[in-house]
Amino acid sequence: MIPLTLPHSATFGRDRELAVLRRAVTGAADGFGGCTVLTGSSGIGKSHLLRATAECAQRRGVAVAARAAFELDKAAPLITLQSALQQLQPAVDWTREDGDAQYRIIERLGAALEDYAAQRPLVIVIDDAQWMDELSALAVAELVPALASSPVRWIFAHRPAPTGTPGQQLMERLVRDGHEHVVLGALDDDAVRRLCAQVVGADVDNTVLALAGFCDGNPLQVEQLVRTLHLTGQIVVADGVATVVGEELPSSFITIVDQMLHGLSSDAQELLQAASVFGRPFGVESVAQLLEVRPATLLKRIKEATTAKILVDHGEGLTFVHDLVRLAVYGTLNSAVATMLHRQAAAITRAEGRSPIEVAEHLLKTGRSGSAEAVTILHDAALEVAPAAPSTAADLILHALDVIGEHDPGRVRLIADAVGLLASAGRLERAHDLGETALLAGLDPRTEAQLLLGLADAFKHAGQNRTAVEYADRALAVPDVPDSVRAKLHAVRAHARFYSDDLRGADEDGERATEAGLGTGEYAASVFGLTARSLAAQAEGRLDDAHGHAERATGIADRVRGDAIHRHPRIWLGSAQAGLDRFDEAEQTYRRGRETSERLGTAWSTPLWHYYHAGLLTARGQLDDAVAEAEAGVAVALNMTAYALAVPLLGMLTRLAVLQGDLPQAQAHLAHLQRRTAAGTTAAPEDITWSEGVLQDAVAGPGTALATLAGMYDALPARPALIAQDPATAAALVHIAAKAGDEARARVAVAAARRLAERNPGVISLAAAADHAEGLLTGDPWLLRAAVERFRRTPRRLALAGALEDAALNAADPEQGRAWATEAIAIVTECRAERARRRLEFALGGPKATSEAAAFRPGSPLHQLTRAELGVAVWVADGFTNRQVAAELFLSRHTVDSHLRKIFTKLGLRGRVELAQLVARDRLGPAA
């Protein structure tokens, strides 16, 4: 608990911990962000330290937003953060609209906090963070790194139990990610002695210390024990020294509290017992209704309880000094009295408009009739919070299932909803077990098909595509399934089949979904089916078809809006445009699609925007920007536990790290990818197998790579997706096979590239790729020259550099070869393709690249930055927020965050203030 209205009291035995927390506050005051996690058992003193920290921040002029989370927070998405931020003056300027999805809420909140911190440093303090609601936990996971460059300091306190809550998982993740971690242990003997002396107002002798020793250095228990004994006259002070008298001394915390109650009047005891049924701060009016008395009659009792330090003013109402005290008081109620109080509390909380979860929790403790009503409330509440907190919603329905009878007619509907929510929360094993149990029990056809659809959709989004296909097959085999449900099933199965390498099946299902969706008004299924057809067509090398399907899907979505627009077909339209070398159009498509996604708040699409945009940037040769995009995509995917979306991005990061010559980083990305795929997540071989082969070629040589890639070579005639997506890979495939001595597979790659070019005569880069691959295999300098000239007419800079390199190596004219080598080195140097640069300089003896005219003094650390990083650094140094920089540079905010983290790491800086000072010191003139 951290009620900031409490006066500061001395803190004993915590000098080291206080120093850490005060340094965190000082850092915020000096312009630096960060995060500190305080871990300790109940009553160990975490709340006291947070109060001292908040007071320190206020003295330093740092704004403080503080709140203790409560177990009931889970029922109100974002309540933990929102309630804390409501304390700020001036108020944080953000508006949460009804119907806002997670992504939109978090984006808006992050922007508001960044703007606020630009005017005044901020410390956000959350006590009992293990009870944080799910959306607050998700927001914190997103905003801690996003605001790391702003003077926003996050300070959390939590106890290690219970496990599995969103707040607890967040705390574990923050610690795992390397944020500052302070563990609170027991007080030492000297601290215990000083605490006892403070409570009684006198020195204490060994009788007091011996009794306090049974509390194992837990300050709450020590304080409550000594205060209780003093209150009941079992500690007396003589000649300025306190000593213990009497024989019946408490032996446990519960007996301490029980004895403490006996030291109060019967009226005060009655007040405390009644109030103990509330698991949150309560108002005087609420407890007066519970006791059926006028509020004014409670004032004397409340004063007695607050004087005894059992109740404290929390700001939101009165609360127990610690939840352990409340639970101990609650334990003194007999069952009949507890049942009566909970029945009344349910009515009171309902009348006050409190969370339905709180009403249900009271009802569950009132017997059979109350439980039946509670099930309905829990079910309705789960459906209400599901869009913002799917894991919490799943827990609520599971709670309802625990209460409802095995043969209750409402159980089937509960299970169907529970399966969908569990799957949305990524808890697939539990969803599978629950769904299969329900299916074994026998369901009507419509319910069975809906349940199987939910399972298929869930496993597809989790990347377990073969399982998704199996569920969709079972659902489609159910008789009398409505056509609208069939449309959805075909759409889901189409995408799952694509990622299971069944291109023909994906196209067939996509066509069925399209027609059934249009016929039944299930337009989202039509859009999703068409995007599956676009993917399949691109994988087969039918690039005009891929574009046509995606364009049709986009037209439907723009026309009908609704659920259809939430499928974001522009993701695949942009990909199809890029495949046709229409890069500028693809850029515009991605930009417009991203804006729509952010407006709608559809978080699931965010990693995909990053993935496809990173691919476009890679083709352009903007490798640093591509890395930042892909890293941002991985971070978002992991925050959402959307591991299936993280896998392709990790594959891309592996390949980018190889291009940039950072093989240890490439190995780390691939290891992360393999951990995900080992758990059953599948993705296209172009993302997984090709990434592994590229790294093996760089580390172990072409023979090892070829062993991994053999299946991809053999599949090229039917699935030339790799070359269609990145024409430069045609030559790479020939390089690997030829160097490994497998001419037959090299010829397969050449034939696939040539066939792809002939099928798509309007795509210059595919003709260039075919010339490059064939010229490389045959050593024909004229084909290699043709590849160079054709790639010059495309925006594919790295593909051009590769063709220049091979043309230089096979040039009949040494002078021409030198010119091509020089040009290739210039391109790869500008693109930051370090591995190719080193290879060219070693093999061809080309000139080393010279840096552009420096905008900063010679020797400045800023020269370590890439062009992209330097651009972000200058904007930030000039006082722009991350959001403003993103808008100016046409980047996502996540990409700017990623650039900034790298800038601070490279330069050894702690935040924006130091960056601004460095740029001001070393800048020679306007930045380029």
Automatic annotation (TrEMBL):
Organism: Dactylosporangium salmoneum
Alphabetic keyword roster: ATP-binding, Nucleotide-binding
Signal peptide positions on this chain: none
Matching SMART domains: AAA (SM00382), HTH_LUXR (SM00421)
Keyword Nucleotide-binding listed: yes
InterPro entries reported in the protein's UniProt record: AAA+_ATPase, AAA_16, P-loop_NTPase, Sig_transdc_resp-reg_C-effctor, TPR-like_helical_dom_sf, Tscrpt_reg_LuxR_C, WH-like_DNA-bd_sf
Annotated PROSITE patterns: HTH_LUXR_2
CDD domains: LuxR_C_like
HTH luxR-type domain residues: 858-923
Pfam family membership, one: AAA_16
Keyword Disulfide bond in annotation: no
Name of the protein: LuxR family transcriptional regulator
